[in-house]
Design goal:
The complex is a heterodimer of chains A (313) and B (281). Chain A is mostly helical. In chain A, 75% of the residues lie in helices and 4% in strands. A two-stranded antiparallel ribbon of chain A has the order 1-2. Chain A starts with a helix and ends with a helix. The N terminus of chain A is likely disordered. Chain B contains 15 helices and no strands. The longest helix of chain B is centred in the N-terminal third of the chain and has 32 residues. Classes of the chains: A mainly alpha (313), B mainly alpha (281).
Chain lengths: 313, 281
Amino acid sequence: MTTVGQAVRAEAGTSARSRTRRRPSAFKVLSLLPLVLVLVALVGYPVGQLVWLSFGDVRLAGGDLLWDFVALDNYARMLDDETFRTSLYNSLVFIVFSVALTLVLGIALALATDRLVRGQQLVQNLLLWPAVLAPVVISVSWLLVLSPQVGLLNEVLRSVGISPQAWLGEPVGAMASVVVVDVWHWTPIVFLLIYTALRALDPSVLEAASIDGASYAATVRHIVLPLLTPAIIGAVAIRVLMGVKVFDEMYLLTFGGPGTATTVISIYLRSVFFESFRYGYGAALSITVELLVLGVMFALILLRRVLRVVRGA
Amino acid sequence: MVRRSTGEAPRNPGFVSVLLVGAAAATLLPILWLLLIAFQRPRAIVTPGWAFDFSLSNFQEIFGPRAVYGTQVLNSVVLVLAATAITLVIAAFAAYSLSQLGWSRRVVNITLASAALLQVIPPMTLVPGLYVTMQQLDLLGSLWGLVVLNTVFNLPFAVILIKIYFDTVPGELRESAAVDGASEFAAFWRIMVPLAAPGIAAVAIFTAIQVWNEFLFGLVFTTGGREAPITVGIATLIQPQEIPFGPMAAVGAVTAIPIIVLAVVANRQIVTGLTGGAVKG
């Protein structure tokens, strides 16, 4: 570093680059400043507020927040909160099923599209539609498909003599329905990620396999899928994060019900904050969820490093 | 890829066609059903059977003089234009700064890491803190509050993706511009921005879609009336007692159609957005 510094000083004033290294220009600072200010004011500060709320008994009186320090009471209360535990469990069930199904379908569609001789562009274009539609629109569409009164599915069932079903009205049916809707919504992103990775594979490797007389199934199993592993891991990570965040579809299709059957984390947080008005407790729950997400993420990153070291050794 | 190697006839394999036709049908059916119900006369909607009775009455109802949905569609348009424009300006400057202006590795990493964290944390967990902040800024229940929030939550992705494009531009270009006497702003605006244009276009389209689709902040930071975006307007139609299926489908169709048009004409930018955003988290 010192040598670079000396060299820069020696050359001072000879080139634009050395000038910017010595003292940041106004443009350099001003170009980054808005982003930093926005992040500090609208992420850093609110997170500070969140921490502050979580240590207090907070009430709303005449538009003002009244705050009394209660130390860790809000966090302690979480331990006997059965609905919170249910919401964590529901989120887990939702994530496991929706991620697994989108993964299988997405990979299958990517492999199939890659085998197409004609119309790849058209298929790719069409299959992506659900990923860009508003969750609200998707919920409305599926409400119209699943509804016992006007639903497409029930019209079909009626045509073959089966009486209408209220899937969204019973616990297992409701969870299955939101999983199906989520799979419809997000299979496209898995498809796209895998398809993109597939197109980037080195064709010569695959050619070598087929010259060796390997069948398509064997090639996929022993060569293509192992080569796609990084893309698959990436897709799983993204889908899990989406599953943790999920809110819109549950809010619109089931409102977390029936009972608490589809009350996932975000649905429960909203009800604590906007229905029970327990601001302090809601903040404590929020921070716990954030720490959980970040903790799991760092654990996975660490695990990957450890595995790499172990394998390398 | 495998197909190229063997001497297959130029015909799509049978099982592949079946799978993809099935997937295309599954993709289209709920959307078509939505459109069908939107253009169906209300009485025909609840009548069992397949009779279709075309009418525009659902649209007349939702855009009638007493309904708020027309205003909400306009709100969404304003929200998309404002939030996308502000996001692009802040992100383009910041991405260029981080990529080309010789910030230390530590500054770059801390900025990108905090941006990436925002992508990972469930937005709902930030709502309590944001609520207090918005109240202090007197932005609760206003469209400008939503412009601010949508900007904040789309910035991380925008910065990360545009930076990828600036990273591919050689630094010498900027230096030679400086030698030619161009100001730093001129070098950025006239030379660098056009070079990153594909990335900026992808971010613009992707951000616009995200903002148009946004629901959570609209729901908790407005009251759902004349200041709300259209996504929140749809939610007010879904009531536990009796859902007005026809108008609900009509509002859904109005919200869906611009996005489907974009999905068809701007597919390349959307693909960049989806894969780029996914890669970076």
